[in-house]
Amino acid sequence: MSATQTKQIKFYNPASSASSDSDDRSDVTEPLYIDPGVAVSERNCCPASPTTVPAKSVLESPMRRAGRRQRTTSIGNQTTTANPSECIIRSNNRTIYTAGRPPWYNCAGQQVEPFVIGICGGSASGKTTVAEKIIESLDVPWVTLLSMDCFYKILNEKQHELALINEYNFDHPDAFDIDLLVDVLTKLKEGRKVEVPVYNFVTHGRESQTKTMYGANVIIFEGILTFHSPEVLKMLDMKIFVDTDPDIRLARRLKRDISQRGRDLKGVLKQYLNMVKPSYANYIAPTMAHADIIVPRGGENKVAIALIVQHVHTQLQLRGFKLRETLANSYKDQPMPDSLHLLHPTPQIKGLHTFIRCKNTSRDEFIFYSKRLIRLVIEYALSLFPFKETCVETPQGVMYEGKRMESRKICGVSILRAGETMEQAVCDVCKDIRIGKILIQTNLKTGEPELYYLRLPKDIKDYKVILMDATVATGAAAMMAIRVLLDHDVPEQNIILASLLMAEIGVHSIAYAFPMVKIVTSALDPEINSKFYVIPGIGNFGDRYFGTEPSDEY
Amino acid sequence: MCTGGSPSSNGSQAEENNEHEQEQAATEQGEQALRTAIGSSTPEEILAEYGKNLKLLTLNSQVAELLTIIRDKNTSRSDFKFYADRLIRLVIEESLNQLPYSDCDVETPTGAIYQGLKYRSGNCGVSIIRSGEAMEQGLRDCCRSIRIGKILVESDANTHEARVVYARFPDDIGSRQVLLMYPIMSTGNTVLKAVNVLREHGVPEECIILSNLFCTPVAARTVVTAFPRMQILTSELHPVAPNHFGQKYFGTD
User: Fold this and answer.
1) Which tens digits make up the pLDDT trace of A315-324?
2) Percent of chain B with pLDDT strictly greater than 90
3) pTM of the model
4) CB < 8 Å from B in window 495-554 of A
5) Which residues contact B10 (CB under 8 A, 6 or more apart)?
6) Cβ pair A195, A212 in contact under 8 A
7) A404 vs B contacts (CB less than 8 Å)
8) Which CATH number fits domain B39-250: 1.10.1740.10, 3.40.50.720, 3.40.50.2020, 3.90.650.10?
9) Which helix (H) or strand (E) holds B200?
10) What's the whole-number mean pLDDT along residues A83-107?
């Protein structure tokens, strides 16, 4: 009886060394995948990297928040209540929540290279523990954790059989798809979106579904053979080797495999002696020479982790991650850039603005008049796409020289929530247009924009994109959205940013960072206030349109 | 007919007028050749030619595309209506832009003052049956509860003489600004009749704004000569009018 049981369980528990770590911890890391803006079923599509740990403690801010934007969104509330549906996890007496993605580019909109940490070490040496300790102490809002386990090769039938009787060597460099690994890591380092394969240890193949990951400020890459490939080595900014005593590693492995996975002592020892141990000696231990830091005793070594964290902080500061305030304070008194296309300030546009800016306008009228204005903005935005001359035949029998748009491949992308209000107008002027959405919210504590959710048409790089946001103040959210589009290979000159109202500062920032992005707006206001609202402005457009103003405004 | 700057003006305007004369000369030259290309007339030429009350929708590429699609005989009906509605919306918005307004400061939710403006109430629309009715929805989309009157003008099959056979307006139309809607003008006779009816109902000429999509130079001249104080807005001046508009829009072709 015990034999059959063992065999069954063995299907689910790979005879692999490296995979074991992640299996153990799945219950800890799983909640980290949850994205606040997304329904559970849509988790896979969210930009959240699998391990997203904004490290700051969350329980302090309600008092400070009063000075910031006041709004009654769930994000404002989640800091005070530990509602399990919101993505708060507790680990090691700390509260960690999954936030959106903060800026991963500098204030000129240029991609800043993320800091890549490689963690190497033998099986069961505590690599994942070290990675987690680093993430926890790092105090940066966004970290991507990439495991080498994702890159196991797909096994053929014979190899599959070997794996079942503990004779396939999962610890040999040949077991990994190094080319794919290099490709994924390169893209992550460039800040691009990547699809990371999900390895199935039962079928020893890749799942059809992949994990979407983004480059973050910090990328941690861990695995038993992290330092094996010279190409990968070149990409690592910091190389950590976790050196744990072989006896302890064997003891951990035995405990884990026998007590948690129901495997027998003989099999585990056979695998260890025949493959794990020789591989360690031949391929893993020699790479210790590449390491910048060797961490003895793994995750318990607090001093080593503190040193690592300190170094990473210094590096991040040098790279200049910090956005909104820098934006708000630059570019004063400069002429407006050429990429700005302001609608003719006709009396009618001014009249529409009068309606929607007046604080006493009812929501019904607010919606009606903003829709009229949006329609004009969108019509104008369309005129900025390239056109070609054409000649058509008319029913009157004469030829008519006219123009047609060069490409009908146009799609709209709205920046949630306020940008969504412009979708209808785009649909009204372009038949069957595809609409993408990007959710960016301001972190109430840092004032920085954060990316929460992303859904874009599949081949967006082939499209001309109308990016929509109702108001642009500092331009931080719009810049993040443009950056996202660029990361999806949309050429800069194919993007038009359309909005109803912009602050001059926002226009300057965007135009400076992305000079080829056309900016369309119906009005330009000179200032923004300390809460990053445009003055005289329009108030919170989304709140007024959707009727979610904080109740004290009544 | 020209109500723009007169050539005999003096002082600081001398230079401007000089330019103006040159433009006028250029226009006259250009008139010799029949123009078929779109965008053939600059706003200055139009001003010189027809006076300040005839305005063209700003011709950007997008508008040019709309015109092209509407003109193209291979356009499907569904496309035709879709793009015609878009053009109508733009023309209506621009027509509303001609309405009188007064300054109006409002307080925004941020507590700052926005120096805006306010249109007067008491406007109404009048559509000339049948093709003018195609523009009613566009007007409704901009002014939800506006009153709309109608005029039916029929032209005699033999004499081509236009005559009004039906007219129904709001009672107080004489005290309102009137947006007269008629998309195609080839001779301008229909519009002349319609404006005459409006005047009989006490609407002053200067309170009428004519919203039009396609206008021939002949019609423009006729209407401008007859009613120099009426404002006219169109999207294109072209010698060939797309006379199939009403039929294709309503699907009776």
Assistant:
1) 877 776 554 5
2) 39
3) 0.64
4) 529, 533-540, 544, 553
5) none
6) yes
7) 65, 68-69
8) 3.40.50.2020
9) helix B189-200
10) 43
